[in-house]
Amino acid sequence: AEDTGVRVELAEEDDGTKSPIALRLWVEDAKKLKGKYKDSGAIEFTFDLETEVSETVAQEMVDSGFFLDSDVKVISKSIRDRVALIKWRRQRIVSG
Amino acid sequence: YSAALVVHSAGRRFIVSPVPESRLKDQ
Question: A63 CB near a chain B CB, below 8 Å?
Fold first, then answer.
């Protein structure tokens, strides 16, 4: 996937069954963000793979002051890519 | 700094903690 400068990883072991899963997001390359990033560190949150969309949580991060509005797309994309990977991996385990 | 908890009005909890050195971009 395209390097957004933002990393999103699992913050817990994926047992392949739970729909809400803990993720951790942090900025690896602040130069890729449009807005000024104040060093907040790693942000851990729970995301529901079945019912939630990445745009919602990205907007909540902006609302909470972690990022500026101009970066909501990059945050959202970073989360979406990771979520797609988790879902793909689960699908593979189920079908294989 | 230590971990901080930020709760969004929609109810989601964000736990903020320092990024471990080893996870910063070095690859």
Answer: yes
Q: Which of A7, A41, A64 sits opposite B8 (nearest CB)?
A: A64
Give the pLDDT of residue A37: 83
Closest chain B CA to residue A5: B25
Residue with tokens 């989360």: A79
- Hey, is the C-beta of B12 within 8 angstroms of any chain A C-beta? yes
Closest-CA distance of chain A to residue B21, Å: 11
Q: Which residue, chain included where needed, has tokens 């972690």?
A: A66
Measured CA distances, A66 to A16, A74, A93 (Å):
29, 13, 35
Q: Please give the pLDDT value at position A96.
A: 72
Among residues A40, A31, A24, the alpha carbon closest in space to that of A78 is found at: A24
A50-68 confidence digits (pLDDT tens): 999 999 999 999 999 999 9
Radius of gyration in angstroms for the set of CA atoms belonging to chain A, rounded to a whole number:
13
